[in-house]
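Page header: ASSEMBLY MODEL / two components / 456 residues total.
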Amino acid sequence: MMSGGDVQSGRTYFILRGETVSGEVIEVSAARLTNALYGRNWGMVTAVVNNDPFKLTSIHPANSLLLDRVGGLDNLPAGARVPDLLEAWGRLYNERLAPSSPYRLRALQLDMYRWESGTYSNYDKFIDSWRKEL
Amino acid sequence: MAEGTLNRLVSASALSLGVVRSIVHGTFLIGVLVTSFGALSELPPTLLRPVGMMKLLPWEFYDRLLTPSGMAALKGAMLLSLLLSTLGYLTSLTTKTSFLLVVVYQGLVRSFGHFNHDEMLGVYYLAILAFSPSSDGFSLDRWSSSSRRVRSNFVYGYPILLMQVLMGWVYFSSALIKLRVAGLKYLSADNLPSLAIYHSLDNLHETHFRIAFLLPHVRVLMPYVIGVVLIWELMFPLAVFVRRLRWWILGGGVVFHLATLLLMNVFFPYLLAMYLVFVDWPRVGRWLRTRRARMSMAVPEDTTNGSILDSSSHRAKIVDDQ
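Prediction written out in full:
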């Protein structure tokens, strides 16, 4: 925020959506699920999509194992840990509903969009998506 | 001379510092109360990117902390410590444990997300209060103690002044760094609209206001709006040193943070709560006592003989009592 905004540079953002057991697609508020990270959920998602936890000098042993398995950071798919995050959020969402509720989620997905540069329009160019069946 | 200057700037008394301790610790207490630590424990530690001193802690620490029992223990310890430090019980100890626990917790949430300066000033205030005589007024320690330690008002006023100066620096340096990083480009007509729209596009923010999309229609006004905000930030230290400007500058802060909430879905509740260090609490106490006395004058029933006293005699009684 210190450098301010610039309409000439494109920007990437994310929408969290869930698919209910009745087949309806709804938007899910991450801030309601992990309110400890109020004001930080969006930053966390960006970092997880960028695989930032794999770029530390001291990597979590489980992340280190995954890196070894795929053959290094270059071979790691974008958002390697996004499914784990979606699974945790999906579990939190469903735990708050009755087992018979039609609003329970059967899948949670994170959609990545880009606001292309230059104009105050074309805000939602679809880029990528991650989905986790719950 | 220093004490005289200090007294002109802040309300230097044990009561003031005690109330400030209660407000700062109470703010964090409420924050912990309404936060689901259990939900945080559901997140896998493999998402963490420890920051600062949190890098020194081994991964086993995070693996154990980010469990339901680990987070329940952290929340329990924080609630107990913050409750006691808010009430001012075993204050010398509990203000320090509250500070340490909040630092660990803030380090943890910052290791998940980006650096957010909302709570940072409050954390600095906790550090100041941990090493100040904040139990000499407005505390259970004070009420339960038979001895009354007499200290110079300077020791109570200095921490409050330091907190106010820190807040002034937060806003002043914010303006400086914007100018240093972006220069005059910061005043561009697209700065605020593009930043505000970016923060309104996703659904990961706490709120989902969409007012930002109106800003491009008034983009020619934006350089003036940003200019006013920069001037306000640069002038913020005057709130410490010029009492006449204080409430205008703090009022501007309330408007500014409400505007960032509505336009950018970014809100700083902790920082706003810290504005209360500027309140003259002994004066508020006197005002409340006077108001209570006036209200009791409004129904001046003499229970001894059932007659209604006239207000002048009742007022005289209150003055005598005082």
